[in-house]
Every structure is written in C-alpha cells, then in structure tokens.
Design brief:
295 residues; mainly alpha; globular
Length: 295
Amino acid sequence: MNKSGILLHIAGLWLLSALDASGKWLVMAGVSVLMVAWMRYAVHTALMTAVVLPSRGRAIFRTKSLPRQLVRGLLMITTTVLFFSVLGRLPLAEATAINFMAPLFLMMMAPWLLHEPHRLHRWLGVLAGFAGMLIVVRPGAQLDPIGVALGLATALAFAFFQIATRRVAHDDPLTTNYYGGLFGTITLTLALPWFWTTPDLSLWQWLLLVSTGLTGFLGHWLQIAAFRHSPATLLAPFSYLQIVAAATLGWLVFGQVPGQTTALGIALICLAGLGVALTEARMAWVRSRALREAR
C-alpha cells in the first residue's frame, strides 16, 4: 500500500473542504456566488500559469480533443456555481453529503453513457445511497428545500463532470486541470459586467476571498500528485473522509453539528459509496492477479 498517495489525497480533500467553508462564509457575508466563483478560478489559473507554464511551455495546451475539454470546463463551472449556491443555504456537512450522491448517479448512468456492464453491487449501492439521502433531507430535518434541490442538481452536474473527465483521460492531468481553470476564468470574466459589485469587505475578508483560488489550486494539485503515487481504486474509499472534514469545519467555523438521524443518513451515503468502491477495488485486484497467473 502506497501511504504517500493516501496522505496526499486526504490532505487535498481537507484543502478542498476549506475552500467550501470559505465559499460558504463569503456567500453568507453577502458576496455574490458568481464573484466567489470568478475569484476562485482567476487565482487558480494565475497560480497554474506561474507554476506550471514555465516548465511545460506550449505542451500544457496539447489535447486530443479541445471540444471535450471545453464541455468539461462548462460542467466544472456549472458545478462550482451550483455548489456555492447550495453552501449559502445548507450546512456544510449536509451539502457535502448530498454532493456525494454524484458517484452513485455516475454508477447509475455508466451502463448507458460509458457502456460499462450492469453490476448488482453498483445498483445496491445506488439504492442505499438514495435511502441515506432521503434520511438527510427528510421533512423533519428542516433543510431549505431550494438548497436541497440545488444540492441534487449539483450532484447530477458533478456526475456528468466526472463522465466528461473520463472522456479526456487521454490528456495529461495537468493539461485538463489547466483548461478547466482557464475556461472558467474566461467565461466568468466575460460575464463580469452583468454581476460585478464591489463587496464591502475588510482586509482579512479580501484575503479569504483570494484564498479560495489558493486552496482550490493546492487541493487539486495534491489530488493529481496522489493519483500519480497510488491507483484510483486504492484512493476511492478514502474520498469519503471529505465528509468528516466538512462536518469538522462546519462545527468549528459555523457551529453546525448534524443531528443523530441526519448523521445516520450521511453515514449510509458514505457506506453505500464505500462499499461499491471496495468491491470495485477487490474485483480489480482479482483481475490483476488472474492476469499475472496466466502469464
């Protein structure tokens, strides 16, 4: 087991949760969602340009399918704007838990969109995840219904984003990351005249706004490094630790602690995804072992 990849993956997840917490705080403070999203992409792209472009040069723009990169970038922007909107309406842990329906949506759509075989354990995982989501968003949970609807839309958009990411897997991960940030920056910059309002923020609040790009850049950078050190099947189960990070930051920053029933629903979503991830990892290991023995 490559522990360095796991540690890099977990560190990246915590940074991305810090990005979510910062975005939630800023939206609650009155900064527009599009403003937060624009700053997040602009700083991210500036940092990638400063750090990656000098070493990669024009090679960073080399892609086998620019249209697919643009589709992925559009879905990335959609997911970001939707999720920041959700964070303005729902507690951090609940919003993150609903967003983790995305892998389950992906499993549900994979047979038709990715031409992957139907597998019973995937459908069982989807059903268990939906049960967990229904517990989280039950009427007694007193969650904003618009926030819940936006959360489900975010999860669905993120599932399509993951499909789009698979379809550009032939490109260098840094190229894909750069195109996503660059397309997001250009699109939101073109829209600036329609949503720009200078927020009345203190110096540290401006620093927090700028930090969304830094945490996003470092979080994705660590994710790329993690996948270089360890296979995706090994890292997938640890992705669900992001809900722990979200719950911890939600408690420390906003004083929001999920109730026992909500925690049960969140746990069920995690267990559903974790069970599928572990089953997939075991199946991959069995296939790999069979190939080695056949040689």
